[in-house]
Amino acid sequence: MRETPVTQRELDAVIGAASSLELFHAAALVHDDVIDNSDTRRGEPSAHRRFAERHEARRWAGDAAGFGTSAAILLGDLLLGWSDELLDDALSELGHPERARAARRLFNTMRTEVTAGQYLDVLEENAWVERDEEQLLDAARRVVIFKSAKYSIESPLLIGAALGGASETQLETLAEFGLPLGIAFQLRDDLLGVFGDAAVTGKPSGDDLREGKRTMLVALTRSRVSASVRRVFDELLGDPRLDTEQVLMLQGAMRDSGAVDEIEGIIDREVRRANAALDEASLAPEAIAALRKLTARVTDREA
Fold it and tell me: Which Gene3D superfamilies match (predicted)?
């Protein structure tokens, strides 16, 4: 992407921007757990549950769950503010005003997109009853793109490239690589949210079923089962009290319908799309090699 050596000032700016993205990601997870009412995150109590447990342990007045939710929302907001401050500090240290403005624009776009994606996720968990099967699949794909794929893979690549002074052609290549890889990343996450080993993922097996996530996996399953199976599926999905037998029933419907195999096929196609974007890319050979390794790292995983 560049031939001149990276200065310490530029390296510090990149580290600061990367730290900003980490805090942004943490803020999104804290808020996401509140919205989904998730009890765990990576094997530990989620932020709102930790605050609620503190309330219960100290025997404070009022409702522990309500306190936990309020405190976690504030924590997420605080992390968002710190993320912005870190990015501003990093961009001011970069020493390249034009690159800094480009990176800031990309960051702002990412923040808008992931917020819209989170809303789309909430919307589809409620509005799915008025959608036909094709609309459900299209809606689920939009959630994948805007809630996860862009901000988890595509946007960080573009922000880093902008900091390094990438050309428009290089930015387009990274977008063509990052978006399909981000889609594959989230689809793998959706499979793990239903079938993952709790000891590895840090979340109870089938947790996404209890939360009623309207994923592409769910949309494909519903479009391939009989009307009677679909009715039972819809009755169970989203019930936080699902027992092991009911979770196994939903998992079986997903496997038997062929939806799991189709999602695996989509993951493979998106990974091929991502790698194809690198075939004639005007990027440094070592950058291309690192990006190709990234495709396996984010899609061939168990957590």
Answer: Farnesyl Diphosphate Synthase (1.10.600.10)
